[in-house]
Amino acid sequence: MKYVIIFLTLIITSFSSLANVIISNTRVIYPEDQKETTVQLINRGTSPALIQAWLDENDPNSTPETAQVPFLLTPPVVKIEGDSGQQLRIRFTGAAGSLPQNKESVYYLNVLDIPPKQENLDGKNLMQIAIKSRIKVFYRPANLKIAVSDLHTYLSFNAQGNQLIASNNAPYFASIATISAHGKALIREPVMIAPFSTLTIGTTEPVSGGQALDILLVDDYGSYQKYSLTTK
Fold first, then answer.
1. Where does the Pili assembly chaperone N-terminal domain start and stop, copy by copy (predicted)?
2. Domains, the chain
3. 92-131 core/surface letters (b: 16 or more CB in 10 A; e: else)
């Protein structure tokens, strides 16, 4: 029997309808002053599921063997019974102060739902899909100078034709679900602006200085918060 597994990666923005095992969070915040943080997995199917999980530094092609991160994730492999759940524990194992102390750092949690081997299919070709979900893990230093709820006040947008030059002067990652003007979306997909950095964002139509924008920011809980800004 030919046995082929295809891997499908999902970046989680909402619960996947394809995977039996889902991650209850859409993002994870790891405060520096906590010993560990947890992530809840839920098996919505009726059959047991085998899960493999690991963290990486923004490498979608990473594997548990190649990923090098200052975190310990347990359990790395676990069987989750149908209609049941399992917690993953993430513990920072790096040296104190080894990550930037003036801004967040981001990592990615991978959860691979490995399909069970089908029985009584000898002599038949078989293709199965192993679904890999990925969500962001933000490591947040304890002594950042501003509140995360004020993030939007540290964002600015410079209009340049069919581009917006977005500046983030906050110590937090700015995850923007959409940018719109007069009810029309200006970007085709979400963007994330790193702390203390700028990002050039292509727009679906020209923008001008003094133009009102509505942005949807993703907060710590995965909810959208709407703010109105004006371009420069």
1. 21-144
2. 3-140 (2.60.40.10), 148-230 (2.60.40.10)
3. beeeeeebeeebbbbbbbbbbbbbeeeeeeeeeeeeeebb
